[in-house]
Amino acid sequence: MAKHKKGKRRTAPGADVKEQWLADHGPYEFCMMRYCFSRLYSASDQLDYNAHFECFASKARVLVDFLDNRGKQSNDIRAVDFTSSYSPPSTEPVKNIINKLSPHAAHASTQRPKTTDEKISREDSAKLAEWIEQAMEKFLTSLDPETRPLWADNKAGSRSFILSAGSSSPTASSADPIFSSFSLSGGGDLNR
Length: 192
Prior knowledge:
- With 192 residues, this protein is mainly α.
- It has helices at 15-39, 46-67, 95-104, 122-142, 160-166.
- It has one domain.
- The protein has 5 helices and no strands.
- The longest helix has 25 residues, at 15-39.
- The chain starts with 14 loop residues before the first helix and ends in a 26-residue tail after the last helix.
């Protein structure tokens, strides 16, 4: 077990917590990351863009920590808690973007980004979203046949809007055909 900075030992979550993550929390985080990423390409104004970027950055950080097994707090959940056959893809291509996440996402810091180079661009967001997509696919593929059906695909949204949104260079006032038909088939609670 990994030792927490303050001496608390990290313990693997129980079966009920893991099932809840696969059936609800994980797909929700993934869906919100996907949705907010797509909205970066159709923001109506700067505040709209900022709101969706903040959510994207927050959800991306949660998913990177999970998929790259970074969780060190005693109550953090990590991909390795579900399967020993998963190893995350290299973060080298997105390392600089990941390092920029903390000052951007829900973090009061003296290190707030000031220059364009310090900020995460739409292109950076697209690279990070694609890394998360690949890592999630690898994680889900590594789950054993009894565990894989617990992942609620119907709550995770669609990968197609990630590919659609990142494939062009829209302006902040672009139309958004991506989510005009988005829905959570089988229901889902969007009021979190």
